[in-house]
Design brief:
By secondary structure, the protein is α+β, with helices and mostly antiparallel strands.
């Protein structure tokens, strides 16, 4: 992002140039010099901008699914949005989170390795308070979770992983499963300290309580599916045809679908007065003679021509002609 100078900074710069404290030629030389950026090998860049954009897109859907899920579970206003997707070393992530927090350690088959969904204590205890009948406020002093509180937390976040599974469906079918719930980051070592991770930060608001939910995905875990996070893969996957079993399932459902079949004996027009004066035994004359063929409609479309008759003592219609698409239904 380009730095914007304030008016005071501009005035000071002009004053320095006019007084001779700064030389305009030297400033030009500094701009033309090649700028070198130091590369830290401890913070290796493993995710390209393309990967970051794909992860952002996936977890924007995840945020929407989570918003719906927690709103239904907590029965209060919940708003979750993606704030940032970045890559950094694992130990830097550990140092950035509170010493007392809620860490949901989970696996997601067929991926190998563990990931973490870290929930800020303000958010976690607001959820807990709401689930236990409170207004959804967070306590001023954060204490360790009791056994009952831990079980409640495990249940609500175990089902929250269904939202993650739904968000990743466009890339891979995951089966997330909560493995453990920790509160101390020092006891959680899922990868080496220098391992690069993708950190997805979600701003969360529950009623009047705000906080962050962080999803930590190590590079080594999603490395096998990294090619699927490219834009090219997204476009190619959209063009793929349906699998044979999907086509067969669709055909089976279509064969079981029910459609109305109507055999029209004819039409007639009467006035409202005549309609109101109809009695049992009255005869309405139709516009077709008895020997004329009948129009048979499927839904509202003319499909067949047939003869009226009986079959096994019941009224029936024998199909004598199939009407082609676009044919005039009045043509016999």
């Amino acid at each position: 992002m380009v730095d914007v100078l304030s008016q005071n900074e501009i005035d000071a710069l002009l004053a320095a140039l006019s007084s001779g404290e700064m030389d305009a030629e030297e400033l030009k030389k500094e701009d033309t010099q090649k700028k070198v950026r130091a590369y830290d090998f401890k913070r290796a860049v493993r995710f390209s901008k393309d990967h970051i954009r794909s992860l952002t897109r996936i977890h924007e859907n995840f945020a929407r699914y989570l918003t719906t899920y927690f709103s239904a579970q907590l029965r209060t206003f919940v708003q979750i949005n993606v704030v940032q997707v970045e890559q950094l070393p694992y130990d830097e992530f550990i140092r950035s989170i509170p010493k007392m927090t809620v860490l949901n350690i989970f696996e997601a088959e067929p991926l190998e390795g563990r990931m973490v969904l870290e929930v800020h204590p303000n958010v976690a205890f607001a959820m807990l308070d709401r689930l236990l009948g409170g207004a959804g406020s967070s306590p001023t002093k954060i204490n360790a979770l009791t056994e009952i509180e831990t079980i409640v937390m495990e249940r609500i976040f175990s089902r929250a992983f269904e939202s993650l599974q739904e968000a990743w469906k466009t890339v891979i079918d995951l089966s997330p499963r909560l493995e453990a719930l920790e509160t101390n980051p020092q006891f959680m070592q899922i990868v080496s300290p220098n391992e690069t991770i993708a950190l997805i930060s979600l701003s969360t608001k529950i009623g009047d309580t705000t906080g962050m939910i962080n999803l930590c995905i190590p590079h080594v875990v999603i490395e096998p599916i990294m090619p699927r996070l490219s834009v090219h893969h997204w476009f190619v996957s959209q063009k793929k045809t349906s699998a044979p079993e999907e086509v067969l399932a669709l055909q089976s459902r279509l064969h079981k679908a029910k459609l109305p079949i109507i055999a029209e004996l004819g039409e007639s027009q009467i006035s409202v007065r005549e309609f109101l004066s109809l009695n049992t035994g009255d005869v309405i004359a139709l516009n077709k003679p008895v020997e004329e063929l009948l129009h048979i409609r499927i839904g509202e479309r003319l499909k067949f021509i047939g003869n009226p008759g009986t079959s096994r003592g019941k009224l029936a219609v024998q199909i004598t002609e199939i009407v082609n698409e676009g044919a005039d239904e009045h043509d016999e």
